[in-house]
Write a structure and sequence with these properties.
There is one protein chain. The protein has helices at residues 11-22, 34-43, 55-63, 80-98, 138-143, 169-180, 198-211, 228-239, 251-255, 259-262, 271-277, 286-291; strands at residues 2-6, 26-31, 46-49, 67-70, 104-110, 151-157, 160-162, 183-186, 192-197, 216-220, 223-227, 243-246. It is an alpha/beta fold. It has two domains: 2-159 and 196-221, NAD(P)-binding Rossmann-like Domain (Rossmann fold, 3-Layer(aba) Sandwich); 162-194 and 224-267 and 283-291, no CATH class. Strands 3-2-1-4-5-6-10 form a seven-stranded parallel beta sheet, sandwiched between helices. Strands 7-9-11 form a three-stranded mixed beta sheet. Helix 1 links the parallel strand 1 and strand 2. Helix 1 (11-22) crosses helix 7, helix 3 packs parallel to helix 4 (80-98) and helix 6 packs across helix 8 (228-239). The model has no long low-confidence stretch (mean pLDDT 94). InterPro entries: Epimerase_deHydtase, NAD(P)-bd_dom_sf, NAD(P)-dependent_oxidoreduct. One of its GO terms (cellular component) is cytoplasm.
Length: 299
């Protein structure tokens, strides 16, 4: 199976690329830079040069593939609305290319900001519609193509996809704790984040490519919801720093851009995903990774 993967050299995408190659797929990875292209070739993947702004390039790669896994996103928090509009345009162009083919189109989505008071389930639709909504409303856009001869699947990743080398949210929170001398959480820290190890996430993506039904939502969430105050405490224990609450009105000043996300609720069930895909997470927990030094900082 020839699979076009955007974000193929990224944190999740590189693990997905390895997983697909190990199971006999031909991976065509989108590469914007020479460094990304070299990394993909070293793995044995085919390189497709381009970017999310190059819609014709995305369309040509999608047309030539048996399926698409769209993991790339412009993480430009200085222009997050613009990043969403880019996402919307890129997703629409690839979906229009696949229309009527019954080929799979899997795209990365998220769990943060889901349902208040209970874990988000695979049956829960997100409220984001249109290019100006969160992530360009790409999840709902993609799922709407289930009636147009595409097999779209939303891959909802936990806020923390953890492991050694993770450059994401947990790494950022660890760096901020070291800089501030305190491991902080917002308010009472009762809001919860789902978590999954990178290897488990990659395996879930491969299983979803093989078996997830059209229009489904799959949750990469091995731990359904960890209170953010407990995440802060685990970081504090590792760094030998105190843990403290940060008032919501001070969150941006203390945490910077990540404050708006650390305050959100991101608890999610993975029961349906496990049932549909036969997916059982086996990797380390988030706390095990933190304690083992996965987020060790230089100096």
């Amino acid at each position: 199976m020839r699979v076009f993967v955007t974000g193929a050299s990224g944190w999740i995408g590189s693990a997905v690329t390895d997983e697909l190659l190990a199971h006999g797929c031909e991976v065509v990875g989108l590469a914007r830079s020479d460094r990304s292209a070299d990394a993909l070739r070293a793995k044995g993947a085919t390189v497709h040069r381009g970017s999310l702004d190059d819609l014709d390039s995305l369309a040509s790669a999608a047309e030539a593939a048996d399926g698409v896994i769209h993991l790339a996103f412009k993480h430009d928090f200085a222009d997050y609305a613009g990043a969403g509009r880019t996402e919307h345009a890129a997703v629409r162009r690839m979906l229009d290319t696949l229309k009527g083919s019954d080929r799979p189109f899997l795209l990365a989505s998220g769990l943060a900001g889901g349902i208040s008071g209970r874990p988000l389930t695979e049956d829960d639709a997100l409220p984001h519609h249109g290019a100006d909504s969160m992530r360009g409303g790409s999840e709902n856009l993609a799922l709407s193509y289930a009636e147009l001869g595409v097999r779209p699947v939303a891959l909802r990743f936990s806020a923390t996809v953890h492991g050694t080398g993770d450059p994401g949210f947990t790494a950022t929170l660890t760096r901020i704790a070291k800089e501030r001398g305190v491991a902080g959480y917002i308010g009472d820290g009762a809001n919860r984040w789902a978590a999954v190890h990178r290897s488990d996430a990659a395996r879930m993506v491969r299983l979803a490519l093989e078996n997830a039904p059209a229009g489904s939502r799959m949750h990469a969430a091995a731990e359904d919801g960890i209170p953010t105050r407990d995440i802060a405490a685990a970081i504090g224990r590792y760094l030998a720093l105190p843990t403290a609450s940060v008032a919501p009105e001070d969150a941006e000043a203390h945490f910077g851009w990540i404050g708006r996300f650390f305050a959100l609720n991101g608890a999610a069930s993975h029961a349906r995903t496990q049932e549909v895909l036969g997916w059982t997470p086996t990797g380390p927990t988030l706390f095990e990774d933190i304690a083992a030094g996965a987020y060790a900082l230089p100096g």
